[in-house]
Structures are given as structure tokens and as C-alpha cells.
Write a structure and sequence with these properties.
3-stranded antiparallel beta sheet; 170 residues; 38% helix; alpha+beta; 7 strands; 2 helices; single chain
């Protein structure tokens, strides 16, 4: 084999190796992104299930209390910054007008907050959350309670009222 042909053969092999390496990197990147997305979905489902279960269990246990804080954490998925609870008697005009609360206002306008959606994650989650009948403990005249997550933890107090659960800040 001549020297020129060997050099061309080497170049071809280098180009092929670079191409294969790039494909492996691309596939690996996609796999890692998908893995992270699945982890976020699992985290959301765990958060939703834990919140629903605790609120529904406490509703029939008058006077029982569960406090979620750093000692008893309820971890939220990292992409969410705030959670809002909406009382059954809410009307759209009483809700905040900021556009990040549009989904909350739409649910109240369609009366969905009484049966299918009364908890809203901000920014908007893919899944709606209904935790059962709730009462808001420290909302004053407003029929909603919005709480910011602290280090992805929800700090709230749940209290059984016999037919619903009172939710308040701690």
C-alpha cells in the first residue's frame, strides 16, 4: 500500500470514529434528559399522592393535626415555586389577576374547584390536583391560600375538621 493511500485510510477511520463518538454523546445526553424528566414526574406523583392521602385521611378525623416542615418534610418537585389552595366558595373575581394564576381562575370559573381541581402548582403542573373538601385556616377574606416552597419543601399545617381538612401556614 502506498503512503498516500494509508493516509486517506487513516483520515476515513478518524472521521468515522468522530462520527460514532458524536452519536454516542447525543444518545447519552438524550437518555440523561429523559431520565431527569421521569424523575421529575415521579416526584410530582409522590407529592400529589402524599398531599391527597393526608388531606383526605384527616378530613374525617376531627382535631387530628399533621404538620409538614423540615422535621416532617413534604418535598415538592424542584420546578415548582408556589402552591395555591382554593376554597369551595371561591369566585373568580376574588382571585389574583396575575397571569401565572390563570389556570386557577379558569378552574374556579368552570366550577372545577369543587370537584376536580382545588390545588394548583405554580408554574402550572401537567396534572390537576383535587385533595377533597378543604377549609383555609388563615386566608382572611380571601378564598385562596398561596404558599411559596422553601427549599422545595411545603410548610403547612393540616387539621381534621370532621367533614373537611383545614389547611394553614405554619
Amino acid at each position: 500500500m502506498k503512503k498516500g493511500q494509508a493516509t486517506i485510510g487513516h483520515i476515513f477511520i478518524y472521521i468515522l470514529a468522530i462520527f460514532i463518538f458524536a452519536l454516542i454523546l447525543l444518545y447519552g445526553y438524550k437518555a440523561i434528559v429523559q431520565f431527569m424528566e421521569k424523575g421529575e414526574q415521579v416526584s410530582l406523583i409522590q407529592f400529589k399522592t402524599t398531599l391527597q392521602t393526608n388531606v383526605q385521611d384527616l378530613a374525617i378525623q376531627y382535631g387530628d393535626v399533621i404538620v409538614f416542615n423540615e422535621n416532617n418534610p413534604l418535598k415538592a418537585p424542584s420546578r415548582y415555586k408556589e402552591i395555591c389552595f382554593v376554597a369551595d366558595d371561591a369566585v373568580e373575581q376574588q382571585l389574583p389577576t396575575d397571569e401565572r394564576y390563570d389556570i386557577m381562575r379558569a378552574a374556579v370559573d368552570a366550577d372545577m374547584h369543587k370537584s376536580t381541581e382545588n390545588v394548583f402548582l405554580i408554574p402550572q403542573a401537567e396534572h390537576s390536583i383535587y385533595v377533597g373538601p378543604i377549609e383555609l385556616g388563615d386566608y382572611g377574606e380571601l378564598p385562596y391560600l398561596c404558599i411559596n416552597f422553601t427549599k422545595n419543601l411545603l410548610n403547612i399545617r393540616l387539621e381534621g375538621r370532621g367533614d373537611k381538612t383545614r389547611i394553614s401556614r405554619i
